Amino acid sequence: MVEAYLNEIATAVPDYDVHSKFVDTAPSLLSEERHRALFKRMALKAQIDHRYSFLNPHPDATGFDTTAGFYRSGAFPDTETRMRFYKRYAFTLAKRALDHLNFAEHKDSITHLILTTCTGFYAPGIDLQVVEHYGLSPSVERTVVGFMGCYAGINALKLARHIVRSEPSSKVAILNLELCTIHLQETDDLEQVLSFLIFADGCSASLVSREPVGIELQSFTSTILPNSSDQITWHIGGRGFDMVLAGRVPSTICQGLPSFLGRILGGQRPEDIAHWAIHPGGRTILDAVQKSVGLSEDTLRHSRDVLRRFGNMSSATVMFVLREMLQPGTFAGRGCAMAFGPGLTTESMLFQTAGN
Question: Per-residue pLDDT tens for 67-78?
């Protein structure tokens, strides 16, 4: 049986670091002083130092950004305005990641292109822009995985593996692109404001083929944790996309994950897995996985480092973690990647260093 390998990953983020600005300004959305104080305490515990956006932070303490006043008090943008912004900047970020991958050198061998995104849509879309800009064959097969949230990056790898195993001559390019920061809501709801404390913009570009370089994509498992469908939701509203990230998500993971762990690990024990690429959906989610699986602090160092430096970039984030593991001298042996999203769904992948 032909095996599939994740050969290479490149990543990119926009130019503007918006985390400190958000921490300073977001409390102004909250009317109650006790909620503002709680937000500030939670921000200190978030273990995030940087998050990036195409929105230029406003120098005034009372303003969010200077990008044509995107977020103006009392007049946050409607969905159409947010989608125009996404269309203006999304391909810019895609090119940045693809150029870091030296994508032009691979253009003649690309047979499939997969795009994941849950933060913006337009057609003809980014997939066609990639084909035209880089001169890919017009027969390249394109798939857009939309609105699956944070676990879509693993679903894209799963799809790429299916393609390579069924068509061994295939070479699959994957783009995971999200502009999460364009969906901030003007709300007095503390839980919703806290959810935006972690989200950021980012993009990953990667290549999957039968060439035994990088990491072997061995198996995938999908699991829906019971009685949790209302805990992570993502709906298109008139004033943008409405995210619900309930505060009880970590406890649901902590309670539900152990009963599915045997199936996720294919009968192996957690101690048999040398590397864990856990999607850093937030500090408390990483804490929940660490506690429920019984992992050491060092095991999650790559996930925590990505969270600290970039925040949660939805579908792109787990690829940032895997990229850290692909650095020379960093990774050898077996690993497990895991991400969480609407459902509450757990998508996981077992992988191994090529040649081991």
Answer: 767 998 888 999
